[in-house]
Automatic annotation (TrEMBL):
Subcellular location per the Swiss-Prot or TrEMBL entry: Membrane
Top-level taxonomic group: Eukaryota
Name used for this protein in its record: SNAP protein (Soluble N-ethylmaleimide-sensitive factor attachment protein)
Protein topology in the membrane: Peripheral membrane protein
GO molecular function: soluble NSF attachment protein activity; syntaxin binding
GO biological process: intracellular protein transport; SNARE complex disassembly
SUPFAM superfamilies given in the database record: TPR-like (SSF48452)
Length: 231
């Protein structure tokens, strides 16, 4: 009981410190993690690690942010009531780690595993498409188009509904444009997809990365909200 009270006190101190010294806040929250861990409060540990990850994101320290999202996922995985939060954290880790540390294979593996898990749930199964499109984009970024096609075929076997989905058509069309080194076709495919299904910043980042390999002098512009304009 004393350890719980002490851990709660460190966590509260950390949350207060966030307002004036974020690095000091992290020290307090890490103390809370250590205490929660000794008494098996893994969900509390996960929440604290997620808290730290978000602080590092606020500091634009994406390397540490990704590490702490992974730590949070580790603790949430040990708590049977925290599986959904585990998914949030491990996916966030994969997104940051691929975008800032270029760990593409690791991210692909995570996205594919989460897609397979989602397909087993009636409530979550439609979310598998987003994991598959992210994994597919990273396969294309790596540049192995043959393996990208094989992986997309595997996604269709795992989820027959993916076969006729907009996401699969989008990936197929992107692969064709890359194969033909056709920048204009690539831009048209991206804008047509984005017109109906808004692309998030993570996808835009990697689609621009793919496009930049197609054109010698890519024309980069930012939209009013700071996103990359692929045209």
């Amino acid at each position: 009981m004393r350890q719980v009270i002490a851990a709660n006190a460190y966590l509260e101190a950390g949350n207060i410190a966030k307002k004036y010294d974020k690095l000091e806040a992290i020290k307090h929250i890490e103390e809370a993690v250590n205490m929660y861990a000794t008494i098996g409060r893994f969900s509390n540990c996960g929440k604290c690690e997620k808290n730290i990850a978000e602080i590092y994101e606020d500091l634009y320290d994406y390397d540490n942010a990704s590490k702490y999202y992974k730590k949070a996922a580790y603790y949430f995985e040990m708590d049977e009531y925290s599986k959904s939060i585990y998914t949030q954290c491990i996916v966030k880790y994969a997104e940051l780690n691929s975008q800032y540390n270029h760990e593409y294979e690791d991210a692909i593996s995570i996205f594919e595993k989460e897609a397979e898990k989602a397909l087993k749930s009636t409530l979550l199964q439609y979310g598998a498409r987003d994991y598959y499109i992210k994994a597919g984009i990273l396969h294309i970024v790596i540049g192995d188009l043959v393996n990208a096609k094989i992986s997309i075929d595997k996604y269709c076997m795992n989820d027959p509904r993916f076969l006729n989905s907009r996401e699969k058509k989008f990936l197929d069309n992107i692969i064709d444009a890359v194969t033909e080194q056709n920048v204009e076709e690539f831009e048209e495919i991206v804008h047509e997809y984005d017109r109906i299904t808004k692309l998030d910043n993570w996808k835009v980042h990697f689609l621009y990365k793919i496009k930049s390999k197609l054109s010698v002098e890519p024309n980069v512009e930012l939209t009013a909200d700071g996103n990359v304009d692929l045209t």
